[in-house]
Write a structure and sequence with these properties.
globular; alpha/beta; 8 strands; Rossmann fold
Length: 278
């Protein structure tokens, strides 16, 4: 008979000024917290929690306004995200943390790390530059970014006309139809959340310059999919080289959600990054 025991798991609700923040804690060991993107919630990280929970205390949560966290009456302001994360970390009594962010989650994780660098042992930014100004982070002065944007917008429009979610992309939708269906189903759990208003808030708050991070010494790994049409993958390397402790990895044949569509490769990169002596 097998002696396997599943990692421990608890589900909680943290009271915040907007309402309740849903979170889940799985496994044991050093704290590893995941922040999802605009098309997700805490469930987006199912392949990461299953992989990392045997060695880490994995914390997932649904950003405010994303079910099963409570809705926000007047819409969501991403400037409130870092405060929710700080409250959750304090609520769980975590002295130090490792942070993994996907897309929109970069706004949460980068701002928390900038405010509390002494508590963050490592930061992973997947398909995101968080609150950094994207065009301003382009070493070509915006030329490469503008060219990428024109091409990506056309690709997104063509894909959406055929029912393809931009955060997965055509290759993943065709190769992994079950994952594509699951991603769309998780996305739809947000219900009536005004995502266009939230996107506008993300653009409004992405104003930081790389010069502001010249003393940011939190070890940071930027991961991007080579075929991403939502985040320009070339910015991952450009930003990493500007950080005191930055590095970048490009996952080939992946779109905007490498953690979801290429989970084994994504997890291996994060595993190796976290295992390095700090």
């Amino acid at each position: 008979m097998s002696s396997y025991a599943a990692p421990s798991r608890t589900v909680g609700r943290l009271k915040r000024p907007f309402g309740n923040l849903h979170y889940e804690v799985s496994g044991s060991g050093p704290a590893l917290i995941f922040a999802h993107g605009l098309g997700g919630n805490h469930l987006s990280w199912w392949q990461q929690v299953a992989h990392f929970a045997p060695n880490y205390t994995c914390v997932t949560f649904a950003h405010r306004g994303f079910a099963p966290s409570d809705t926000v009456a007047n819409g969501v302001d991403p400037a409130d995200y870092p405060g929710d994360l700080a409250a959750l970390i304090d609520h769980l009594g975590l002295a130090e943390v490792r942070l993994v962010a996907q897309s929109m989650g970069g706004w949460t994780m980068l701002e928390y790390a900038l405010a509390h660098p002494d508590r963050v042992k490592a930061l992973v930014l997947s398909s995101t530059s968080g609150t950094l100004d994207r065009r301003g982070s382009d070493p070509s002065g915006g030329t490469a970014y503008d060219a990428w944007l024109a091409t990506s917008e056309a690709a997104i429009a063509a894909g959406m006309a055929r029912g393809i979610h931009p955060a997965m992309g055509e290759r993943a939708a065709e190769a992994f139809p079950a994952l594509h269906l699951l991603y769309r189903s998780i996305d739809e759990m947000a219900g009536t959340l005004d995502k266009e208003k939230l996107r506008a808030g993300l653009r409004r708050t992405a104003t930081r310059t790389l010069a502001e991070l010249k003393t940011f010494r939190v070890p940071t790994l930027l991961i991007a999919g080579s075929e991403d049409t939502v985040f320009p993958p070339f910015l991952a390397s450009a930003i990493a080289t500007s950080l005191p402790c930055g590095e970048a990895q490009i996952i080939e044949e992946a779109g905007h959600s490498p953690y979801f569509e290429q989970a084994a490769r994504f997890n291996a990169l994060v595993d190796a990054f976290l295992a390095r002596p700090r």
